[in-house]
Specification:
Blueprint: E1 5-8, H1 11-15, E2 23-28, H2 50-67, E3 68-78, H3 100-105, H4 107-115, H5 124-134, E4 138-146, E5 163-170, E6 181-182, H6 186-191, H7 201-210, H8 212-215, E7 231-232, E8 247-248, E9 252-253, E10 257-259, H9 275-285, E11 291-294, H10 301-308, E12 312-317, H11 320-339
Length: about 350
């Protein structure tokens, strides 16, 4: 199958065109339930109940599971929705009504009100994740994408929502994953290199013998924190034993709350990934020259970052104008890829 292309059409139909176990990684964000009308037939997100929405998504990801390699991973960005009278979501801080005809007829609103109390979060991400587990996926992390620059909410009787979920799934217990590291905290850096403050060596050895779990958090040399990701030698001497400041090569294993600002996009697409968010997923989950699938590719950010990071992509998009938008963004990188 030709790589680095966007397939135009219904997501389920286009997934069936992709061979079994073809892609190394899936990075995508489905349309959120009840947020907006993308104005094309068969779109996902305007189902009359969250059960219908989740069931439709699960059917899509059954097909995703088929095209994903056994050692592949699947990363899904998903936000929640509030149940309200007009059924809007201020997830982005801006009220967006959708499907005006249904709202006027009252069909959608009445059905939603029977299922959920008004003003409540619908817990869509949790319901979806449980449905994925029921279908045999392994949920490795529920990562929180925290947005420092989110738009403040105008609602005064709750907190502003400044995060979305990034679900990290795998098909099997063994899969490709490149361990990611982040800098140690300033407290750790300050304490690193100080000797254990026990009474004497004998007490320290006794402490080690009695508390083997604690030993794992202390380096054999007696330092307070081990360099989990490894360190480089400073000045030719091992800083664990000298007084030199260590040159940290990696740091601690990365945590599961990612603070990444949203990224503006000048064209008419409402839900664009920030490139840094996609880069984090690719760095961990796709080998160089691997294939990344975004089955709701939208503005094409996954494709753009994949090409920048020397990976291939496949995209699926039902709305033709979004494909045109995406190809315009990635054109320069596509040309470079074809020249290589």
């Amino acid at each position: 199958m030709e790589l680095n292309q966007i397939l135009h059409g219904d997501v389920s139909a286009k997934l069936r065109e992709i061979p079994d176990e073809f892609v190394h990684q899936v990075i995508t964000s489905p349309p959120y339930w009840g947020i907006r009308d993308y104005k094309f037939e068969g779109q996902i997100g305007l189902e009359p109940s969250f059960q219908d929405y989740i069931n439709k998504l699960l059917e899509v990801f059954d097909e995703v599971k088929r095209v994903l390699r056994n050692d592949g991973t699947c990363w899904i960005v998903m936000g929640d929705t509030y149940s309200t009278n007009a059924f809007h979501s201020d997830w982005s801080g801006v009220t967006k009504h959708f499907d005006a005809r249904r709202l006027r007829e009252g069909k959608f609103k009445k059905r939603v009100q029977r299922m959920l109390p008004l003003k409540s979060l619908c817990m869509i991400p949790a319901r979806f994740a449980i449905g994925m587990l029921d279908r045999g996926w392994l949920l490795r992390n529920d990562i929180i994408w925290r947005k420092n620059n989110c738009i403040p909410s105008s609602v005064k009787d709750r907190y502003t929502v400044d995060y979305e979920h990034v679900f990290f799934f795998s098909k099997s217990k063994k899969y490709y994953f490149k361990t990611q590291y982040e800098p140690y905290s300033q407290v750790t850096l300050k304490e690193f290199g100080q000797k254990y403050q026990g009474k004497n060596t004998k007490d320290y050895k006794s402490h080690m013998a009695q508390n083997p779990s604690d030993v794992k958090r202390r380096i054999i040399a007696g330092l307070k924190m081990p360099p989990i990701g490894g360190i480089k030698k400073a000045g030719g001497d091992n800083p664990m034993y000298s007084g030199n400041t260590p040159d940290f090569a990696f740091g601690r294993i990365a945590r599961s709350v990612w603070t990444t600002n949203t990224q503006s996009f000048p064209e008419a697409h409402f839900s664009t990934f920030p490139e840094k968010l996609v880069a984090k997923m690719i760095s961990a989950g796709c080998p160089e020259n691997g294939i990344i699938l975004d089955c709701f590719i939208g503005a094409g950010t996954t494709a753009l970052v994949a090409l920048k990071m020397n990976r291939n992509f496949l995209g699926i998009e039902a709305k033709e104008e979004y494909i045109t938008m995406s190809l315009k963004r990635i054109d320069k990188y596509l040309k470079q890829t074809k020249l290589m």
